[in-house]
Amino acid sequence: MMLVISLILALVPLLGIVWVVLAGTVTTVDGLFMSLILLAMSGILFLNALLELRKGKSGGGDKAGASGFRSSSVTVAGGQVQRGKVQSVEFYESNVGQPNSSVVVLSNGGSAQRMLVVQGDVRNALPVGQKVEVTLRKDNGNNVLVNVNYG
Hints:
Blueprint: H1 2-23, H2 29-58, H3 63-66, E1 73-76, E2 79-92, E3 101-107, E4 113-119, E5 131-139, E6 142-150
Parallel strand pairs: 4-6
Antiparallel strand pairs: 1-2, 2-3, 2-5, 3-4, 5-6
């Protein structure tokens, strides 16, 4: 459905360019900038349609494979296991009554990265630059750090 909507909306700016050409104002500054803006809008919407088309062909089912982490995320009985090199750990304090959280960025050695949001302060448990295997469990919708293996 989004593909059809994107294609229809991408054609509307092209009709605007036809109107600018037929009105004879394409040689004015206003006509030039109007044409450039309409071309940019049309290009963005065509790109969106292309991405929707590619997503439909790939099936859109394997989100872990799309980010480059094919083998770094495993679900076990104790929780979910994530592997990678720690790129950064940011700690965020929440309002009173809300759990504090840390945002951890793991890399698989290439350009692909995975961001994890973990409940609590894990800056000391996950040193930057260290290769780790973390086990997480869900607790009230939040990831809780269960175990860390270094190596």
